[in-house]
Please model this.
Amino acid sequence: MRRRQNFGPFSEKVHGLLHGADYNPDQWLDRPEILEQDIDLMKQAGMNVMSVGIFSWAKLEPVEGHFEFDWLDQVLDRLHDTGIQVILATPSAARPVWMSRSYPEVLRMDEDRVRHLHGGRQNHCFTSPVYRAKVREIDRRLAERYGTHPAVIAWHVSNEFEGFGCHCPLCQEAFRNWLKKRYHNDLDALNHAWWTSFWSHTYQDWSEIESPSPIGEHEVHGLTLDWHRFVSDQTLDFMLEECRILRDITPELPLTTNFHDFVSLDRGLNYWDFAKALDVISWDNYPYWHAEGRTVAEEAARRAFIHDMNRSFKQGKPFLLMESSPSATNWQEVAKLRRPGMQNLSSIQAVAHGADTVQYFQWRKSLGSSEKFHGAVVDHYASPDTRVFREVAALGRELPAMTDIIGTSVAAEVAIIYDWENAWILGDTQGPRKEGIDYFDTCVRHYKALWDRGVAVDVIDADQDLSGYKLVIAPMLYMIRDGFGAKVEEYVRNGGHFVTTYWSGITDGTDLCFETGRPGPLRKVLGIWSEEIDVLYDSDANHVGGYEARIFCDLIHTEGADTLLTYDEDFYAGGPALTCNRFGKGEAWYIAFRSYDGFLSDFYGDRIRAYGIERALETDLPEGVTATIREDEVRRFCFLQNYSGTKQTVELPYPMQDLLSKDRVQRLVMAPYSYNILS
Ligand code: GLA
Ligand code: ZN
Model:
């Protein structure tokens, strides 16, 4: 949102950009010399924060009811003495073996109704009263003991809440209760919303309802959609229980939980709901740099999109980059090494989009178990003279020069709607193509046309306020929940500019199709009616004014909108493919086809000029280079980033000061994978 404001640091105890890592001293308690060496290396790497205790439950409560905190006392004291602050975790993401053995109900049950054995992590039942009681107990003890420890600046609640539901009897009961509430105890309403008359699915009693299995293939889509919602709500309810106890005892300590890099997940949680419960957002960023079939710049745009979403969760408030790998991961299909420069460019990208920290997973590589080959600041051979350590330490030396950036943010005039419930339902719905719906990638393709030009974008969901934006883009908004159509009408009537595409306005909030003609509640504001949609094979193309139309070709009729482009081929040649409807003081655009070529770039280039949307720099950026602004009422920082893999020259519109070299510059020659921060 176009707001130039300083949000301040997320905690009064924070005085600069934080630089740190997940720290697991509990793996090394029998090696005091390692713990000493850690402190020495942390100083050398310019670290000032550590996230501690994330998976420590077995060390904190080795035997039921028997607690051991001395080791953690010493770790926190030692860090504090060195001037390193601590983000203290609750250990609820992984439980000790004794708990799984004594209380099997804490173990998650999969959709095939088979309970997990002990092992793994983040695989507990979110409903289990025993698990919740055990979590409350350990959280209470941690809060009482460390709430006022001078090193501790925030709570890291659990770890990476994900979208895996538990299908145990306790969760089935909770699901049914959730449904009773949602449908006001009216089973007929549920039967209607889920269209259960289809294939004899009608329920006569609440007790007949069960979670969908297999989830992705269940035919009652309303049930699957509500299950996603329930899993999200139940996980949130679990987190809120942790938050409540921490807030009661330590009201002054900010709470965060590290959001998952949801791109790698099939089905996430609705983090918009989680965001409301947190004081500050943090997330874990694991990019695929140098990947096969995707340029570094394309990956950078995907990452930028998620950074922008995390910043938007709290209306622009800076977030924490809680985790990022200082080199490879152990879980990507092919974990290529970062090319020189890429590591720190990746970190600075987060700062450029609103992060006030650069944190890594992990500080030191473990000697054993599944993450022993995951990137870390410190290798098994713990020398500071490694490429990774040197790059991390170089950033550690630069960050203090950026202290003024704290609290500034990105002021966007454009918003892209990426809607979680829409993502869930698009993943489950059947037709008009089995594969290639690609909701996330489609949103990113629209986004990249703006990213290439250095235009700031917020990434929001359909429930957010639109009124502050000059341009709102809603690609493939298949599901239109109550109220959204009226909101868009009001936004456009008052001078807003709205863009949407094919496969939008198809179903309502329960996934029932609109009977009012597609695109349903958006039909009036767009001034079009979509009669049919043609889908193409991957190798097919139609053409639209010199551009290729791929995968989706929507066959629309105008009802007041102007036709700007038409289809060249097939039985719908001459039919509208791009329309614009003047509505009140604004405009509503409909892009009827998908494109992979220059169409989106040209289209958004025109929109930016027409609506006077600001770019970070009023200059054309070379391919693979982007620019981002962080600002408040008095400060303005420009982050130039070169993802092109080759040297690039950028001519600035006027001389600026380089924050790191302190030089005044107007012509910049940027090395591959490098950045400049200008003020
Ligand atoms: C997640 C987890 C970390 C670690 C990393 C590895 O982000 O939160 O504990 O497993 O993945 O990439
Ligand atoms: Zn359960």
